[in-house]
Amino acid sequence: MDKTININIAGTLFQIDDEAFRILRNYLQAINNRFKNVQGGHETIEDIESRIAEIFQSQNGLAGTVSKENVEAMISIIGKPEDFDHSDVVTDPPVYSSQKKRMYRNPDDTIISGVCGGIGAYLNTDPVLVRILFVIFTAFFGVGFFVYIALWIALPPATTDVQKRELYGTAYDSSRSRNRHPDGTYNNSGIGNALNEIFKAIGRVFYIALRVFLIIIGITLVLTGFLFILSFFMIFVFKFPGAFTAEGMNMNLTYFPDFLNYIVNPVLIPWILALTLIAFILPMLALIYWGVKMIFWFKANDGIFSLAGLVLWVMSLAALAIILFNDGISFAETGKSSFKNILPDKPDTLFVITDHKVEDLKFDKKIAFPDDEYAVFMNEQKKELYIRPHLKVYESDDVTSIEVKKRSAGRSQPDAMKKTEGLLYNYSINGDTLLLDEYFTIPSGRKWSADNVGINLHIPKGTILKFDSSSLNLIHSHNNFADEDSFESKGWNTGSRLWTMTDEGLKVVTRHPDKQK
User: Fold this and answer.
1) Is residue 100 part of a domain?
2) Are residues 317 and 363 in the same domain?
3) Angle at Cα 9 formed by Cα 6 and Cα 11, nearest 5°?
4) Are the beta carbons of 469 and 477 closer than 8 angstroms?
5) Continuous segment of H or E residues that includes residue 224
6) Residues 346, 326 within the same domain
7) Is residue 175 part of a domain?
8) Strand, coil or helix: what is 398?
9) Which domain holds residue 319?
10) Which residues contact 242 (CB under 8 A, 6 or more apart)?
11) What b/e sequence results for 431-463 when a residue is b if at least 16 CB atoms lie within 10 Å of its CB, and e otherwise?
C-alpha cells in the first residue's frame, strides 16, 4: 500500500500520497523561489496556496487521497512557476495583473465555443454586444459566420489561470469568471441574461446541426477511404475479377503489376509496387482517420504522426517519380516505319479475313484498355507480348493498296526505329481476299515500348468490303465512317458485314455479293 501524508494547505487538511507530495513540494518550492524576493510576493504565494486548496476540494480531496494525477491537473490549471510574471501582485479578493493581454476563447462564458465571450473579456465589454454584432454581420453574405469559424480555429481556449490572466488583464478573479457568478448566473443586466439565454438556445441548435453535418462528412470520408483501399487490394493483390474486369469498367487492371515485368527493370518492380502502395494507402488512411475524428469528435495529440505521415507520403511520391522518370527515358523518342503494297487488281468486292486469330493464341493474361481498342496478351512461358493492331479504311483515287505503319518508343531515334523493325506482323493478298493477322508480336526478351501497328486500307469509291467476325475487331470508332450511326450499328449487329466506300466514308450495305467466303 502506498504511503500517505497529511498536509495543511491554506488552513485545510488533505491526505496526499507520497509521489504526489514530492511533486507538490517541488512545485510550491519553485513558486516560493519565484515570488519570495518580489514586492507583494508573500501575498501572491498565499493566494496560490488558497487556489490549490480550492482545486483539491473540487477534486474531492477532502474525501479521498490527493493523487499524482490531481496534482498534475492542478498545475495545468494554475500554470507552471515560469509562466508567472514577476509583477504579479495579489490582493483580497485575489486580482492578478499582467503586463500584456492576449485573446483566447473563454470557456467560462460560452454559447458555442467561447469566441464571443473571449472577445468580450479581452475588450472589457459585454459579450452580448459581440454576439449581436456577429449575428448582424452573418446576415451580410455570411461574413460573420466565416469570421466566427476562423476565430474558433485560430484561438485557443483559456484553460489555465495564467491564460485567463492574459485574457482578462487586471479584471481577472480566480474564484469566478468576469461575467459569471459561482452559481452560474451572469453579471449582466436582465436583458443581457435573456439575450444570452436566447443565444445559448440558438447556439445549441447550430451546434447540433454542425455535429450532424460533420458526422455525415466523416461517414463519407470513412466509406470513401475504406472502399478505395478495398478496391486496391481486390484488384492488385487478390486479382478479383467481376466488376474490376474489362466487362465491368471497360478497362482490365487486374494483371497490371504483372505487366510491369514487360515495361521496367524487374529489380525495380518491388520498389515501384511498395512506393505506389504507400502513395495510395496513406491518403486513404488519413481520410478514414479524419472521418472518425469528425464522427466521434475527439481530440488527440496527433500532430507528430500527421507530420510523419505527410513526410513519408511526399518522400514516397518523390522516390516513385525519380524511378519512373529514370526508366521513362526509354520512352523519350518515337520511331515510325511503314511499307505499302498495291494490289495488282482492283476488285469490286474485297474480302477482309483474319488469318492468325487471338483466340488461337496461347496467352496467360490480358491487359485491356477502354473498348478493347488496345489489348495486350502476355505469354509468360515465351515471355512474348501480343497486341491487337487497328485497321482504318480510306478512299483512294483509282488503286487498292494496303499500308502497314509501325510505331515504338526508345531512348533515341535510332533506338526507337530499331524497335519498330523488330515488331512482327504478317498479312497476305490472295486475289480479292486480304488476309490479316489479328495481332502483332513483340519479340521475346524485348520490353514493351508503347508499340503500335496500324493498317491503312485504301480503296476506290464504290468498292464493297466484306469482313469476317474477327477482322471486325480491328475496326474502332476513329475509323472513316460516314456518320456515327454507321459505327454504332457496326453492320454485323443487324446481320450484315458489308460496307461500301462513299464520298462521305464507309456505310453499311445490305446487298450480298455472289462470292461467299
Assistant:
1) no
2) no
3) 100
4) no
5) helix 190-236
6) no
7) no
8) coil
9) 224-330
10) 248
11) ebbbbbbbbbbbeeebebbebbbbbbbbbeeeb
